[in-house]
Amino acid sequence: xxxxxxxxxxxxxxxxxxxxxxxxxxxxxxxxxxxxxxxxxxxxxxxxxxxxxxxxxxxxxxxxxxxxxxxxxxxxxxxxxxxxxxxxxxxxxxxxxxxxxxxxxxxxxxxxxxxxxxxxxxxxxxxxxxxxxxxxxxxxxxxxxxxxxxxxxxxxxxxxxxxxxxxxxxxxxxxxxxxxxxxxxxxxxxxxxxxxxxxxxxxxxxxxxxxxxxxxxxxxxxxxxxxxxxxxxxxxxxxxxxxxxxxxxxxxxxxxxxxxxxxxxxxxxxxxxxxxxxxxxxxxxxxxxxxxxxxxxxxxxxxxxxxxxxxxxxxxxxxxxxxxxxxxxxxxxxxxxxxx
Length: 340
Fold this sequence. Notes:
single chain; alpha/beta; Rossmann fold; three-stranded antiparallel beta sheet; 9 helices; about 35% helix; about 15% strand
């Protein structure tokens, strides 16, 4: 006896089944019922579904796992690189190369020092890695002084690539790739030096380069504006594309925002890690004979613009471009070499 004879399917009957009704003919894709309008954008829902809750899920997950951000500072000794990093994150995340009471010695070759900290703000954890480059541009002959920096950046890409191509990969690959390289231009008031042009020309192809004018308080407002204009002319004449790059602007709103940022680049910044009393408020600033330079005051310097670019508005974009553009170019090149 068959199984179906003993346990007939639900809805079955011993009586002969009625002939099935044919479904109504579907309308042609190009034809619409009378009075109907073609859909534009998303489909309107009849009630609350909860799709927007995915944003809360992403936020909770990010707060639990945290995220990584790696920044490199490049420039000559004495331009305030460590102070600027400490000012950015309002903590002692970067230490000076020498201690008080010791004679400062200029390294004979470019050395790279990385310091990693976990900083937390309102429940959000960030693993911050700061890479300093003592010895860059401090020699009489600075030929090829950018080679150790390029080698270090490519080594981080190679480390990530080796983890990515494993058969059994880690659930979360440690990300040591440099997401942003802040290049400190000396406040000479003239044109860019050949060293500055050559460094940015080479590094802009493999990392996001953000140029800044260091110690901008040594220039008057007129000198600062003229110096920025000359730097912009130099970058354009030598086809150097610094961050944010025009080629990667896809959204019109992003393009409009980045255009306003590109007009201000390079940012004229002043760093300070000490607080002073100004009008009854504690502010970060640098005390001089003429008064206090407030680093977070847009009327005094453009440090707030740099902080907004690196942290508040473009941090995720810096990571996305690093992964989707610079690392992808390195990955394709390495895999092509392996195939050959």
